[in-house]
Write a structure and sequence with these properties.
With 47 residues, the chain is mostly helical. Helix content is 53%, strand content 0%.
């Protein structure tokens, strides 16, 4: 198998793995939850 073909197949396999993780029905592929401690803090440091 030529090197170019194996590189493309490897890339497609990696993309397929990412897609499987992203679309899992159990919710594991969603965005990370923001912890309440972090959500309560503002972005400007206190003086």
């Amino acid at each position: 198998m030529p090197l170019d073909t194996s590189s493309v197949l490897g890339s497609l396999a990696g993309i397929a793995e990412i897609a499987k993780e992203a679309f899992q029905p159990n919710g594991a592929g969603g965005p990370p939850a923001i912890s309440p401690k972090r959500a309560d803090r503002g972005s400007v440091p206190s003086t």
